[in-house]
Amino acid sequence: MMEKVKQGNLVKWLISVGMPLLLFFVPTSEVFTSQARMFLVLSVMAILVIAFGLMDMMIPALLLPAGYWVFGVVEKATEAYAGFASVTIWVILGAFVLTIALDECGILKRIALAVIEKLGGSYNATLYAIYIVGVVLGQLCFCSHYFILIGLVFGICQAMKLKPLSKEGAIMMCVGGMAAMNVKTFLYQTSNMSLMIAGMQNVYPDFTIAPIQLLLYNCPEFLTSLLFIFVVTKVCHTKDIQFEGGREYFRKERLAMGPMTIAEKKAIVVLIVLMSYVMFQPYHKFNLNYVFIILPWICFFPGVNIAPTKSLDRARMFFSTFAFAGSCITIGQVAQMLGLGTLIADIATPILAPMGKVGLTYGVLLFGTVANLLLTPAAMASLLPTVLANIYQVLGYNPICSILTVVYSLDMIFLPHEVTAYLVMFGFGMMSMKQFIKFYGAKTLFTLVFFGLIQIPWWMLLGIF
Fold first, then answer.
1. Rounded to 10 degrees, what is the CA torsion of 106, 107, 109, 112?
2. Is the pLDDT assigned to residue 120 strictly greater than 80?
3. Taking the CB of the first residue and of the last residue of the chain, which one, N or C, has fewer CB atoms within 10 A?
4. Residue 263 CB coordination number (10 Å)
5. Which residue has the higher pLDDT, 426 or 24?
6. pLDDT, tens digit (0-9, with 9 covering 90-100), for 14-58
7. For the stretch 119-144, what's the b/e string if a residue is b when 16 or more beta carbons lie within 10 angstroms of its beta carbon?
């Protein structure tokens, strides 16, 4: 039986299709060509369909490149599907597969329990311990740890008998969300960073950011987040919250896992190899992408067997994201080929130039915060860098600051739908929408203030601002 379209979705379909079609009323010129106009129509239509969740994003993601070719935006199919030939999406897939292997063998859970056991105990101490666990796991699997950590924190809430919608349960889950996603502000999230670097390379071919550079440049966010957790504990008087078990609960959970398995020991070797390769990349000079493309698959080789091959079935749920990442890269490449990045820079530069570096930086931060309401992180990571690279090039500013600011903006949210991981976390039912908005809205405003007080002065001290 044919499924009926809900009235709310019908309105969204009208917006998704109708708004882009209005662009046909914009006259073309030597700069804004008919191909550029068609590119905008197709791109905006696909992005709105994905943003409204009208269908699985794999469908518009795969149809968009086809549309570029069929409707004459590009001449060759190879140009339309160039994003899928980019090394970026294969790096993203590799990072996801590596996380699956590490999760399956149990080493990530063992590390998380060990850290919380050492640092936790009281309710407040456990909040800080959860965030530290997020930093550790985020570093080990390059911020692909969110689905592991959110489930772990929910289990902690259940074990501590924290009730759904209670202040105690909501705060702990929200801190778990920070530990899962906020850490990507200063830790290298392979998916988003690969997309942003690819976008910047459309303008600056040699542009790159190593994980150690991102950590150095944006490390003040670590202190800002801990300070925010401290403020929350004081405002909400969480010191008075008592729970059963304490540190002993985490010890029992760790001991219940039994002795470390051979697979876990092999996983530790893999992590040492991975971290060594990444940290010493400035010295050995090999391409950073090599290790992400090759090492994850070695985890499933005969004799290695860190995880069973069957666990790769979990990678299927990632295919929609994989397809969307490829299309996002194509959007950036085609936009640059059509000269839209330069066009936007020419229009925006006279407006932005009088604002100065600080004003422009805050403008990017606020624009990214608003864009979060409509675009997915992958779309922002792919679309914004190329546009900003053109603007920063014209103004003569260091382009690396534009990317570092976009990284910040990706986590400045108000609503669950803005990031899939936060939506998953919200779906566990431990908090109300009001509680979510209060916590993350306060975190966003807190970051806006301390971005100017700490982050920008830090960039000035490093000489990149």
1. 170
2. no
3. N
4. 19
5. 24
6. 999 999 999 999 999 887 899 999 999 999 899 888 878 788 888
7. bbbbbbebbbbbbbbbbbbbbbbbbb
pLDDT at 3 over 60: no
Cα 52 to Cα 48: distance, rounded to the nearest angstrom: 6
Spatial contact of 411 and 179, defined as CB atoms under 8 Å apart? no
| pLDDT exceeds cutoff 80 at 249 | no
Please state, rounded to an integer, the average pLDDT across all residues of the chain: 86
Report residue 383 as tokens.
């679309």
pLDDT tens per residue across span 314-324: 777 778 777 87
Instruction: Determine contact, residues 125/172, Cβ cutoff 8 Å.
Output: no
CA angle (395 as vertex; 206, 457 as ends), nearest 5 = 85
Contact 184, 422 (CB under 8 A): no
**pLDDT given for residue 4 in this prediction:** 57
Distance CA 411, CA 186 (A): 11
What's the predicted TM-score (pTM) here? Answer: 0.76
- pLDDT in the model for residue 225: 96
What are the pLDDT digits (tens) for 74-102?
Answer: 999 998 998 888 887 888 788 788 878 88
Q: What are the pLDDT digits (tens) for 179-197?
A: 989 999 999 988 789 889 9
How high is the pLDDT of residue 384? 84
